Amino acid sequence: MLRPRYFYANDFKQFYTYFLSQPHTERTFHKGEYLWKPGSPYEKIHYIVSGIAMHYADHEEGNRKIISFHSGGTVYPGYRQNNYKIELSLTTVALSEMKVLEFTKEQFGLMFQHNTELSEAVVNWYASYINRFLFETIHQEYNSSLIKLCNLLFLLNENQSLGSNMILDMTQDELAALLGISRVQLTRGLSVLRSKNIISTGRNKIEILDLQLLSKLCTSEVL
Q1: 7-138: CATH number
Q2: Does the domain at residues 144-217 carry the CATH identifier 1.10.10.10?
Q3: Domain residue spans in the chain?
Q4: In what order do the strands lie in the sheet with 90-94?
């Protein structure tokens, strides 16, 4: 069974050679650069070769909600023919230098029609993306801030490479924005986890010391 995801990578890695053989443009986005103009519908689709992008929304009251992260080996944004108004409120920015293969909707549409393995992968990717929102709506919304934090750390760990200890290079502001909680609530939750020797924290870094103990504080939906 697949778990909800906040970090997407390697979903389309098997198509890299195929993408190179198709009409495309190679582009580089620098740190802090938008993948498309804020307030505008997206017109291009990117296969991310390297680097990482953050997808988020800024509420009119000034609060930021981070939605997801997208890294090497994945396609973002996904292919579809329709534009939706909510997308005008969403922003995607490069968190590091990014190298991508850029396709127009028309170019990607032709690949989608003619490559059945690719079209299946696109559908599966959307199913995974929707699952993440269903998880938040049905489960995370009703959890305490501590349980939300434990669930998120466990799920982020799932997307990292295997190792005895897990290091998450995320700021506390980013974690709070992902969870939709205040910095104060996040600080309290991190303090509890530190007191139990489950994590250690440093500058823009959280290290998971005891994943098994962390899992005991998570809800069943993520395990």
Answers
A1: 2.60.120.10
A2: yes
A3: 7-138, 144-217
A4: 7-8, 64-71, 52-58, 90-94
Helix pair 172-179, 183-195: axis angle to 10 deg: 110
Supply the pTM of this predicted model: 0.86
- Residue closest to 178 by CA, chosen among 168, 192, 165: 168
SS3 171: coil
Beta strands in 6-95 (DSSP E): 7-8, 25-29, 44-50, 52-58, 64-71, 75-76, 90-94
**Cβ atoms within 10 Å, residue 165:** 11
**Least reliable range by pLDDT among 44-53, 164-173, 176-185, 210-219:** 164-173
pLDDT in tens, 43-70: 899 999 999 999 999 877 778 889 999 9
Task: Return left, alpha or beta for 197; rule: phi > 0 is left, psi -120 to 50 is alpha, else beta.
Answer: left
Nearest-angstrom CA–CA distance, 147 and 91: 28
